Fold this protein.
Amino acid sequence: MMNNTSSETSGVNGSVGDGKGPKRNSKRPKYSKFTQQELPACKPILTPQWVISVFVIISAVFIPIGIASLLASRDVVEIVDRYDNDCLTNKTGSTQNEKIKYIQNSSRNKTCVRSIKILKDMNQPIYIYYELDNFYQNHRRYVKSRNDGQLRDADKEHDTEECKPENNDINGQPIVPCGLIAWSLFNDTYHFTRKNKPLKINKKGISWKSDREHKFGKNVFPKNFQKGPLIGGAKLNESIPLSEQEDLIVWMRTAALPTFRKLYGKIEVDLKENETITVVLENNYNTYSFDGKKKLVLSTTSWLGGRNDFLGIAYLTVGGICFFLATSFLIVYLIKPRKLGDPAYLSWNRTTGAQM
Amino acid sequence: MPNRERKRDKLRWSKIYTFSCIRPTAQLDTDDAPFSLQGPGFSRVVFCNQPGFHRKKPFKYTTNIISTTKYNVLTFFPKALFEQFRRVANIYFLFTAIFSLTPLSSLDPFSMVAPLAFVIGLSMLKEGLEDWNRFIQDLKVNKRKVNIHKEDGVFGKIAWQKISVGDIVRVEKDQFFPADLLLISSSYDDGICYVETMNLDGETNLKIKRSLETTLLFEDGESFKDFKATIRCEDPNPDLYNFVGNFEYAHEVIPLNTNQILLRDSKLRNTSYIYGVAIFTGHDSKVMQNSTASPSKRSKIEKKMDHVIIILFIILSLISLISSIGFAARIKYSMIKWWYMRLPDSRGYYDPSNVAYSSLLHLVTVLILYGYLIPISLYVSIEAVKVLQAMFINKDMHMYDEETNKPAHARTSNLNEELGQIETILSDKTGTLTCNQMDFLKCSIAGVSYGMRTSEVEAAAAKLMATEISSFTENSPKSHQVARAESCLGNNDTVQQAGIKGFSFKDDRIMEGNWVQECNADTILLFFHILALCHTAIPEPNEETGSFNYEAESPDEGAFLIAAREFGFEFCKRTQSSVFIQEKYSASRQPIQREFKVLNLLEFSSKRKRMSVIVRDEEGLIFLLCKGADSIIFERLSKNGRLYEEDTAKHINEYGEAGLRTLALTYRKLDEEEYYVWNAEFVKAKTTIGSDRENMLERAADLMERELILIGATAVEDKLQKGVPQCIDKLAQAGLKIWVLTGDKIETAINIGFACSLLRQGMKQICISTTNVDLVSRDGNRIAKENILMQMDNASQMIKLEKDPHAAFALIIDGKTLAYALEDDVKKQFLNLAVDCASVICCRVSPKQKALVTRLVKEGTGKTTLAVGDGANDVGMIQEADIGVGISGVEGMQAVMASDFSIAQFRFLERLLVVHGHWCYKRIAQMICYFFYKNIAFGLTLFYFEAYTSFSGQSVYNAWYMVLFNVILTSLPVISLGTFEQDVSSEVCLQFPALYQQGSKNLFFSWYKIFGWMGNGLYSSLVVFFLCVNMFDSQQFCVGGQTADIAVIGTTMFTCIIWAVNIQIALITSHYTWIQHAFVWGSIATWYLFLLGYGMVSPIISQDAYLILMEALGPAPIFWIATGLITVACNLPYLAHVSYQRALNPMDHHVIQEIKYCNKDVEDKLMWTNEMNKAIQKTMIGFSARVDAKIRQLRSKLHRKHSSSMVS
């Protein structure tokens, strides 16, 4: 499309009037290609050839990418297990109030055992996610309720103004980490066993490296956390610095959409098809109040990420449209060719009809 | 000193003049009773020579200080600020800026306040500078010096601003009158003076003013020692042509009329000095009363943009309302269950028990958040672009005038794009179209045409024809046919030597005394005598050249006298009764001085259309010498005076065809007895008392001006300014209509109409006038109006019934008629008639009428008008029109000061409109459309995201991205589009003026286009948001297993938007200089660089964008391929649309671009020139139409010659 037509410089000769020598008070504008709007320029135009080739090229590039994406997506093995309801029904009533009562009662045992059948070979690393639904981590009130300085520097622990109402404890001492996000930290836990042998879950390295190293301080320790009358979610070990509290770090990266997954850990052994693994989970987190779902997700990964056909389909669609456009223009071009720069198409020739 | 001058001017003009405004005063006093001045409107009392009285009330009138500024030091700030906030958008921005200071806003306050301050500050600065210039200009005028009577007959100089009512003022020759004065006396014995009213009405011929008989005594400074008188007169009003008042002096009450009033801003000419009393000073003066406040103008595009902004406001309010309602519903029904939110909020932002309040606060938040739909940067960018465009106009070398050393100047930059949409041009004549310089070019004496030089029209016809022929006969461009064509036209030499001003005649047969050898030497001698004698001019010795300059009433007369001088008949002296002429028949012979006694002078009036002198030569023979319009003269010829009638008439026709103004010259020999009989009657008429006098005089003159003998005709070229006909031609081809509004006489105006090709032979002239209506009668007004209505009806009928599609009509109307035609109940009809005519010429119009006509055209047709003029009389029109253009080449800056653009010459209008106007229009239109597109594409993604955050007001983008979006990442490409884009080169613009129609038809800023672009923006926003969201969804997006958070999705979306909008602008741009390349690709690169750099700084600043590109997005392939996909998907519809349009339905500039692209214009020259010719609109007026006619005529001539040569 970008065809460099040779630059067109025409018009005034720069030396006009120079012969006389500049007059003392001459207001004659000085010549420059810039001010005379005569800078060399390329003037590409959309010829039918260009249009058709552009569309063909796009579709030729996009369709393979789409196929590759689809294949990559299909390669990923993903197991999703919703457990929020199943872990309750046999223990409590089915009304929402009963559910909430149950989940809020800290003295009751919330252990729940699930077994998951592996449908396809899964190669390590296998990522463990928890998925929450209808949880607005992206709500403005929620997103703002944190203080990055406090998380990073021990000196700034008093900067808790933005964290209201979860800023100070009843004695007026600052809460570290403050704010609603930290306070509502997810606190379900999972333990996996395969053939009665525990599967090791690696919980290191599940957060972004930059977060661990630069956003969460190595010498910042949780203080007064979850000590208030209302307890939101998980408690933190006060002897471990924030930079090593990876569950918190992952949680603090607020999700963009109300349905989101967060990385819980990695299983670093391969799982074989038709194997069954047992999950012992602590169903602590209250999603019953807001009708949220909780899911446990096991997923392998491809070069493109997780299992999602959308990208591939989108690529194929756009590629297909381009191919369609290319053929349409080709047909138009063949059926009704218009000579480039055919003066018959100038408006003054068209109105006068076929006099030419 | 005054006494000596007085002696030199021993001329009593009143004895020579016959008609005109001059009446014997002795009769006047008894004739007209003084006006009974009572009631409102006639309360002004002026105590002459007693300015002291006017220092206190109730006679304290306005001072002579004039001020045309809009503001003063105190009012500037509030007033200018108020002006700024008249823009709806600015109020909105102010509102958002204020609220952004509260925690309600989710955006950075600085990013809101700074641009607003910048925009408003810039506009106010501009406003202030413009006003300062006006102030300086006023100051210059106010500080001019003039002599006034101080005390005891002593005169001293004071500044104009110090003059107060009642002061006696002495004004010297060629000075302007500082206030409206009552003429007391002048250097002439009979108290006459000449006044040039160019600045008031644009008329160039001098007007005669005459003092009262009573005040003639006060002829020197000394005499004013004890002078005291009282004037009672009308209150200040804008009527330039009427004045009512009484002069009370020495127990006498004498009525005053406009003959005694000298108006401010007119100039004293041909008179050494005058004394006058200031009656109206400063803003009371008639000229100031005529001036209207300079309005602030806005271009059509900008006004339409306001409408679009309002639509965007509605969209903004709508989505804000949706957000707010959604928010309220969420708070009430769902959010209460979200324990992790810990509601209610202590500040009441999220209070389920007070939903109304919370959602109201939320409404404010989202109104600010969605503010990206209405970008303040749009205004900043438009301002910046317009300044740059104005700079290009100022720097254009093609619009620089070498002679006056003046480049074009865009005085206001906010109307650039309006230049591309003009449909009607209203032009002043004198000084704009013409230089007001007459050149004696040809003459016809005794049936023989003399004068070899060609007029501009002829020259152009010859040239065009030559090129046309050469294009048909490719092989031998200079074929004999061409040569013959040239020979047909006579001398093709168009180079005018810088000879004598006013004289371009060249013909050896009668120059240098050679006329003596011609066979009709006697007639020729007479012809020259008429030139030298029949006039009212005064010679002024010119020390430098040793010859004379002539102070003539009209430039025509000046040209005749110069011609006479060059032929060897130099008019050298005028006394009360005689005219002296130095005659030299040939170069060698010594000059002889001859005296001619002037017995009577029947001067020119537009009604009579002729003037005569009756002279007695040295031999005692009495002659009547008469010159006049051919139509009048030919019917007054005697039987034996028609010898040359046929030839002369033919010549006059030819001259007229060539755009020259012609006069027929005649004489009549009188017997002594015959003369005395007539003279007795004439004198009787002259001394008659009463209203009948005028008629009697005319009848007497009519009696004498009969039985004339025709000797020839003159042809004078009213020197058009350089390139005027060609320019008018091009403008007409561009589809523009041109109206000429002139203060000149109807004949002059028609002549000029011919000269600049607005009129041509064969065009049907519709003259609407009131001359045949008796206005004196009681209900003259009503009759006149009915008469005019009837005339207009007839004309409209005529146009309707006209079958010939090529027939062209010209409407000619004079000021008096116009006054009726502009009345509310008639103007609609007048306008309809005028619109049907190809050209419209309004003569004798006052400045106010010029403005009124302009307003009528502007408001009546709703089309864009441009007014062009050079004098103070054009100021009203310039201010009233959508665009005012001032001609800066000549002296006098009022028009320029009032204008929006100033150019040195009329011909630069072509480039200003056809090139700059076309470009600026397209640039601004495309720029604004693109702006809407890009901000909708960006702004709506924020809204969609809202829906996913339960309408909480959270933005998906980092605050810095949002600030940078409009400021850096997308601003420069669009500014470069608005500044450098050229659809076609300037040469093509000039070659195809038809392209200008794209602007006047408003093809690029139609609602269709605007909504198209808005739809495109909507589409892009949907694509960006939903593709992004679905691609990232909830699964991991990279090999490390992490899932996407707000930062990842936001940054990816933002990257996609940056790509999409920049690629979009790359697709719009058709003219890539290195600047565009740098800006478009640079913007995209800048985004990545920014992301990289911003990600490196401390996470306290970069927040969630910390290392986002390096760590999260960079290594994830999905980020890159998503960008590619979305960019393509966003631009697909536009690409398909333009490809489709280009393939099947290309616009003119597309085709021309293609022709240029394929170099077809070089390969196929014939086609190219053909197209150029065809592009020309079928114009009814203009040079081309004229030349066409000429060519047709020549062709038939050629054909005849050709066939005859074939036979032989």
